[in-house]
Design a protein that fits this description.
Layout (H helix, E strand, L loop, with lengths): L9 H11 L4 H24 L9 H6 L6
Helix pairs in contact: 1-2
Amino acid sequence: MQITTITLPGDLVDELMSEVNAKSKTEAVIRAVKDEIKARKKERIIKMAGNMEFTNTATSLRHEDERLG
């Protein structure tokens, strides 16, 4: 764990704590950061839609996987 000191507007922190139902400022900020990271990863995955080509079917992957035999 890393300790970081940041300055945030009090009303913003209070609103965040209320929105995420956090018991502490730390918990609220951690949730907000995690949510932001998750949202950005989701955006990247959505942007990849239609850009990937799969050459194997699910059936062939399932039944022809040498690791499973």
